[in-house]
Amino acid sequence: MYCTPINLADARLSRELAQVATPERSPIVADDLMEAVLRGVDVGGFDPADVAVATQALVHIEEALRNADGVIDGYLRMRKPRPYTVPLDPVPEIVSVWARWIARYLLHKDRVDTREETDPIVRDYRQAIKFLEATREGRFSLGAEDPLPPASTGAPESCHPERRFTMGTLRDFGA
Predict the structure, then answer these.
(1) What is the rounded distance in angstroms from the CA atom of residue 81 to the CA atom of residue 24?
(2) pLDDT digit string (tens) for 56-93?
(3) Segments making up each domain of the chain, as ranges
(4) Of 142, 122, 121, 116, nearest to 131 (Cα)?
(5) Cβ neighbours of residue 50 closer than 8 Å, sequence gap 6 or more
(6) Burial class (CB in 10 A: 0-12, 13-18, 19+), 152
(7) Using CA atoms, how far apart are residues 36 and 89, in angstroms rounded to an integer?
(8) At 144, is the secondary structure helix, strand, or coil?
(9) ω into residue 161 within 30 of 0, thus cis?
(10) ∠ CA 48-60-14 to the nearest 5 degrees?
(11) CA-to-CA distance for 75 and 68, rounded, in angstroms?
């Protein structure tokens, strides 16, 4: 995965993820339990029923992360002039950020009464898609290991037909 549950915990998203990923008709997972499940640490001190709900939430989160990876890979496979070999290894930091933004958007897709113009989740998602489009078109680099062709030296290049006027062809004209 380009973004892992641990990356989400490091971004301090435990509370938000508990709210959007907890299965319907279940009590929202406690922040500390969601944090522990995201990090994969021991949850023995929590109620087993709550752990089961948190585990279901984690499954939902991991599905969103896989879907985000699919979106990213789709753009990177279409890279011009040279497509990327996906999945990327190593993963550039910016790609992890894009995966987080896309996954958050996918997890929040059922929200109502939000203004898309001012919503930071939608804004981040659209930014990720814009960067992915620029990367696909070869206008944005993923870093030093990027397989883009080297930049031009800036010298003009010309393409023209073979020269017609030579000393041999001008001989009849007194040259």
Answers:
(1) 45
(2) 999 999 999 999 999 999 999 999 888 888 899 889 99
(3) 5-143
(4) 142
(5) 27, 29, 30, 33
(6) exposed
(7) 27
(8) coil
(9) no
(10) 70
(11) 11
